Amino acid sequence: MITKLSKFKDSWIIKILLTLTALSFVSLFGITGYIGAAGQNEPVIEVGSVNVKKAELNAEFNHELQMAKNLFGDNLEINDAMKTAILQNIIQKELVNAIMQQTSLDLGVSISDNYVRKIIFSQAEFLGADGQFNHEKFNRLLALSGWSEEKYIQTLKQDIVKQHLVQSMVEAFNTPSFMLPFLEKVANQQKVFKYITIDADKLAVDRSISQDELEQYYQDFIVQFTEPEKRDASFIVLSIDDIASQIVPSDDEVETYYQEHIDQFVTPEKRNILQMVFDKEDDAFAAMQKLNAGEDFYTVAQNMAKQTKQDTELGWVAKDQLIADMGDRMFAAKMNEIAGPVKSEMGWHIMKMIGVQAKKEMPKAQAKKKIIDDIRKEKAYDLAYEKVAQIEDEIGAGKTFADIAKDNHAKIYTLKGLDDQGKAKSISKGQEKLLKSTDFIDTVFSYNVNEVSQVLEEEDGFVIVNVDAIVESHPIDINEVKPEIEKMWAENERSAIAQEIVNDVTHDLENGDKIDEVAARFKLKLNTTKPLKANENFANLNGLQMKEMFQEPLDSAKIFAADNVTVIAVASKIVDAKKKFSPEEANALRMKNAAEFSQETANTLVEAYGSNYKINVDYKEAGLSDI
Known about the structure:
- This protein is α+β, with helices and mostly antiparallel strands.
- 47% of the residues lie in helices and 19% in strands.
- The chain has 22 helices and 20 strands.
- The chain has a five-stranded antiparallel sheet with strand order 13-12-5-15-14. Strands 17-3-19-18 form a four-stranded antiparallel sheet, sandwiched between helices.
- The N and C termini lie close together (11 Å).
- Mean pLDDT is 83; it is low at 1-39.
């Protein structure tokens, strides 16, 4: 069941996408979970009594796609092969999660909320500058990764269960010393491979598409050759800034705002203060005697008050921030003057003034300009909503779009050839961002010709739309799409020719013919590699495929297909090198073997857990009908 999902496309972009999506948010043990979603209640994965709904897979899939776009930009084109690979990865991950959940239920494994809380509170990425758990930082990091707190905690519990049921069972494996000579022999072994490459894109098609085939392709792919409905529209934008510019605050309003927000315009004098605090009066006066005798403030604070340098530096403070009468004393003090001891509820204080920042006041003209801008912004929204209500009443009463624009001194913008995906032939300069608004697009497609829309609120203001023209969806003339059909047909022809060659070559190899003979018979180029180790490759085969090649006996053919290229290869010769491994290389070899064994054991263990249950994966419902 799990191994059925191990076939992934080999293109570099898919490998990057899968790697990055797996790292979307790494929990304590480095295992990702999934994010659920409401709706669609059809189960796609069933393991015993545990099931994963289609909505959960869809939510995770959309999350991974969005994360990929965030990483690579909106211009990233994710093709069907990439989407299939991402979905396969998600299904395999969720299948393992379901097996682990059902196993933990049967074995009575549960994780307490208190234990999870302790783990979260100890994770470095969630700690603030003081070394303590910072809930704001926790929420911010979860939000950046598209996670909710509830789902993160749920997934963390799943990860702890996996650690208990799988990882702790396999992580202690070590390679025995007696195995080292055998490992060195395998590592020293090299093989020579012979292979044929069949590239469909390079094959020639010796005929042209017939008229019947052209028409048949046109009918078969008529959806692809259909022009979607498109619309022309006019629209006006009532920006908040425009509305705000019409507001003129009175002098009294400006003065009241100034007094209520004085901290924005006046920065009081501040002083840089050192402080030491004692529980006992005698200790405080003893410390003061040492300071009066000329001893260093930091040294006395460290030796007598047991304070660090950081504890001693109170920093830049205003007068009203100091305790008791120390405000008056410190703000009348000269540079490096010491005052105290003074008693407060926290103990006995000694302070030293080591710096002065003069009072700063924003010039009245500058402050007035800022105040007017702030008041305008505050009032603009109230005024805007009043205006919107008035306009909507006028629209309901039948007022024309042109009159609404005229009465509000609004410029009329135009939009040509908009489809429901947000692509347009043209739009007035400066308004392109509206094409990214699904609300705006939906509004354009929600009204008939010459109907004025209700007021739509956008990021920078309000938009009113008038539909000017509608071009209904219609099939594109066959002659216009003929070049596209011919290209599709040629690609399919080349793929069919390539498959026929692959079938013939495979048939002859299975009948015992040598790859040299088969290559010559079909006039295919035969390639021969140099002696290769298992960590090397040829013909762009990946590590897993090379591992398969090294496990095959001599002259046993393997077929690997990626995109439009098929590689048919055999191992033709074994070369036993005599390299002597250094102690460092031997240790690395043992560690590599241990890691591979642990991974294979973990996979086997998960398979064993899964064998206890009835497992069903509805690939068609999940969107993988071809698996």
